[in-house]
Design brief:
24 helices; 612 residues
Length: 612
C-alpha cells in the first residue's frame, strides 16, 4: 500500500485544509518551525493507533479548534492483497479519514463502494425475517438457519461483486479493519544520526521484528522457541560479518566488532551498545571521537540499506527522517541521501521515505516533483510544490531538473526571481553589470540567471515556470526575437504558444538593442573594447567613427565584431568570441554609463520590484 496524498485541517500549525502530495521519496524543505515535523507527526497518527496531545490541536491567538482531520489516499501496489481490500477500494485507491476530537477516541472513515440495496449492504445485522426476504429477492434458496443464510449472502456478494449496483459513500469503520494493510511507520529523529548506536538499534529491531512478528504486529507465538536461537545467531552474524565489512571500508584499523544484545520477549530486543576492537581490545562506540563516529555512521547507513533491501516483507514501510543532515558534513549528507533513496527506489524493499531537511546537498539531488516547501505566515502553515497539471513533458522535465546544468531545486524553491536570457553574451555580461550597478551579486539579491539557449530543455522549463513561477519570471531577449523568422529558439511566438500572454510580454519581457544585446552599448565603450582585444596593426587606434561605420555596414554588431577580428587574424593569435566580447564590454563600461542605458534601468527596476 503506497501513500500518495495526505490532507491536514486543524492540526498543529495547519489551520486550513492543506493537501500534501507524497512520492516514493518526498523531501520537506522550509525554515525552522515552519511545520515540516508536524507533517511527519501527522503521518504517524494516520498510520498508528496513537492519540494526539492537546497541543496538537490548532490554536493561535483567539482561534482554537476542538477537533481536526487527517485524510489520506493510498494506492494499491502489486504486493497488496487487492481482493481482501476490494470492499474499501474506489478504483485502485483507498481513501481514509481519521477524525480527532478532544477527550474522545479517534474515529476512522473510508470512502468506499456501497450497495444501492441497503439490506444487502447491512446483511450481517439483519434479523432472520429480513434475511429471508433478501434471499428471496436475490433468488437464493431458503436456508434453515441464520448462519447459513449470511454465508450464502457473503458468497453471493463475492461472486457478483462487479455487477451489483453500487454508489460511493463515506462510512465509519474500525481502524483495526484496515491497519494491517497500511504501511508500518518508522521514525528516524535527528538524534539518531548523531548517535550511530541508535541507528544500529533501529536496524536490528527491523531484523528482529521480521522474525517474530507478523505483518499486523502480532507475535508469532508458535515459532518463538524454534526461532530464538536462529534469530540471535542472525543478529550477531549481521553485526560481526556484514557490518564489520562496511566499517573496514572507512576504518581498516577495526579488526573485530560485536554487539551487546539479548532477546527478551517481554521487552523485545535488548541492545546495550556496539563494541569495536582496533587491536587494543573491545571498546564501546561512545568512547570514540566525533570523526570516528561520522565514519561509523556512513558504514552503518550502508549496512542498513542492504538490510532493508534484503528483508522480505509484503507489508509496506513508511520511513520518516527528521533533519537527518544534522551534525553531518557535506559528503556524509550526500551519501546519506543516496542510501535513503536507494532503499526507497528498490522495488524489493517496499519502502517509502520522507525527509525533512535543510541540506542543499539533499535538496538538489532530489527529484524536483518530490519537493514540498512548507511555508509559515503569521503562525499558519501551508505548502508549495511544483505543479505539472498533468503535462507529461513537464513531469518528465521535473524528474531530470537535478541533472540539468544551471537549474537546481534550491534555486527554483529559494530564489526570489528568475532572470532569463537567451544568449551566452547576456549570461557573461549581466552578472558583472549587476555587480557594478548595485555592489552585490545576483545570488546575493536572490536572483537566478538562466541562459535558455544553453539548455536543451528550455521549452519545458518555460512551461514549468509559466505554471508555477510566472509572476517572478523576467526575460531579457534580443529585439529581433519579435520576428518569428529570426532563427532564435525563444521567440515571442513561442512564448505565446506556451501561454505567456500579452500582459506578461508587456510587463516582464524586455527587448535589447536594435537587433541584439550588444547594440545597447555606446560607441565609446565598444571602441575601448576593440582597442583592448584587437589593437590595430597600424599606428592609428580604433575610434568612435570606426565603430559608427561598423554599425552602419553590419546590422548586427556581433557580426561586425567577428568581421573585425578576422581582419586582424594575422596580427593577433586569438579570435575572441561573442561571450568574451560581452564580458569585456561589461568590464569597460562604467556605472554612470550603464545608468544611461534605459533598457537595463527598466529591467533591473522590474527585477527589484519582485525581490525587494
Amino acid at each position: 500500500m503506497k501513500l500518495v496524498e495526505i490532507q491536514l485541517e486543524g492540526f498543529k500549525c495547519f489551520q486550513n485544509n492543506t493537501v500534501i502530495p507524497i512520492q516514493n521519496i518526498s523531501v520537506l524543505i522550509g525554515e525552522n518551525d515552519s511545520g515540516k515535523s508536524s507533517i511527519l507527526r501527522a503521518i504517524e497518527l494516520l498510520l498508528t493507533k496513537q492519540n494526539p496531545s492537546l497541543e496538537e490541536y490548532f490554536s493561535l491567538n483567539n482561534i482554537s479548534v476542538d477537533e481536526f482531520e487527517i485524510k489520506a489516499k493510498f494506492e494499491v501496489t502489486q504486493k497488496d492483497d487487492a481482493n481482501s481490500l476490494k470492499t474499501y477500494l474506489i478504483g485502485n485507491n483507498l481513501s481514509v479519514k481519521k477524525k480527532y476530537k478532544k477527550q474522545e477516541a479517534f474515529k476512522t472513515f473510508v470512502l468506499k463502494p456501497v450497495f444501492q440495496n441497503n439490506n444487502l449492504e447491512q446483511y450481517q445485522t439483519l434479523n432472520a425475517e429480513n434475511t429471508k426476504q433478501l434471499l428471496e429477492e436475490l433468488s437464493i434458496d431458503e436456508l434453515p438457519n441464520q448462519e447459513e443464510r449470511r454465508a450464502a449472502l457473503k458468497k453471493y456478494i463475492e461472486e457478483n461483486w462487479e455487477t451489483i449496483p453500487k454508489s460511493t459513500a463515506e462510512v465509519e469503520i474500525n481502524f483495526n479493519d484496515i491497519q494491517s494493510h497500511l504501511p508500518i511507520y518508522q521514525y528516524y529523529g535527528s538524534h539518531i544520526y548523531g548517535n550511530p548506536q541508535a541507528l544500529v538499534k533501529k536496524t536490528l529491531d527491523n531484523i528482529y521484528s521480521s522474525h517474530f512478528y507478523d505483518e499486523s504486529g502480532n507475535l508469532k507465538l508458535s515459532s518463538i522457541k524454534r526461532l530464538k536461537e536462529k534469530v540471535f545467531r542472525n543478529l550477531n552474524k549481521d553485526i560481526e560479518e556484514k557490518l564489520l565489512a562496511k566499517i573496514k571500508l572507512y576504518n581498516p584499523n577495526v579488526l573485530k566488532i560485536q554487539g551487546r544484545l539479548d532477546i527478551d520477549f517481554s521487552r523485545g530486543l535488548d541492545f546495550q551498545g556496539l563494541e569495536l576492537d582496533e587491536g587494543t581490545g573491545f571498546k564501546l562506540i561512545d568512547q570514540k571521537g566525533e570523526g570516528s563516529k561520522k565514519r561509523l555512521f556512513l558504514s552503518i547507513l550502508e549496512w542498513d540499506k542492504e538490510v532493508q533491501s534484503g528483508l522480505v516483507n509484503s507489508r509496506a514501510v513508511f520511513r520518516a527522517y527528521d533533519e537527518p543532515d544534522a551534525n553531518l558534513h557535506y559528503d556524509a549528507q550526500r551519501k546519506m541521501f543516496n542510501a535513503i533513496t536507494d532503499v526507497s527506489n528498490d522495488t524489493n524493499s517496499n519502502v517509502q521515505s520522507i525527509i525533512a531537511t535543510h541540506s542543499i546537498a539533499m535538496i538538489d539531488r532530489a527529484p524536483s516533483n518530490s519537493i514540498i516547501q512548507v511555508i509559515q505566515n503569521t503562525g499558519v502553515s501551508s505548502v508549495d510544490y511544483l505543479h505539472s497539471d498533468g503535462d507529461q513533458d513537464i513531469i518528465n522535465f521535473l524528474n531530470q531538473i537535478s541533472i540539468i546544468g544551471g537549474i537546481k531545486n534550491s534555486s527554483i524553491f529559494y530564489e526570489k526571481c528568475f532572470l532569463l536570457v537567451e544568449g551566452e553574451s547576456e549570461e557573461s555580461a549581466i552578472p558583472k553589470i549587476y555587480k557594478k550597478l548595485f555592489n552585490r551579486t545576483l545570488s546575493e539579491s536572490g536572483i537566478v540567471l538562466i541562459n535558455l539557449n544553453s539548455n536543451g530543455a528550455w521549452y519545458n522549463f518555460l512551461k514549468l515556470l509559466h505554471r508555477n513561477k510566472k509572476d517572478v519570471t523576467v526575460m531579457l531577449l534580443d529585439t529581433d526575437t519579435q520576428n518569428p523568422n529570426c532563427g532564435a529558439n525563444v521567440t515571442v511566438d513561442k512564448l505565446n504558444e506556451i501561454g505567456f500572454g500579452g500582459a506578461f510580454l508587456t510587463s516582464n519581457v524586455f527587448f535589447a538593442g536594435i537587433q541584439e544585446f550588444e547594440d545597447i552599448f555606446p560607441d565609446s565603450v565598444i571602441r575601448d573594447v576593440f582597442n583592448r582585444l584587437y589593437e590595430r596593426p597600424t599606428k592609428g587606434k580604433w575610434t568612435s567613427g570606426h565603430i559608427k561605420n561598423l554599425r552602419a555596414t553590419c546590422p548586427k554588431l556581433s557580426k561586425g565584431f567577428f568581421k573585425a577580428s578576422k581582419q586582424h587574424i594575422t596580427h593577433h593569435k586569438k579570435i575572441y568570441k561573442k561571450p568574451e566580447f560581452a564580458t569585456e564590454l561589461a568590464d569597460v563600461i562604467t556605472a554612470k554609463e550603464l545608468n544611461k542605458i534605459q533598457i537595463l534601468t527598466d529591467l533591473f527596476q522590474k527585477v527589484h520590484s519582485i525581490v525587494d
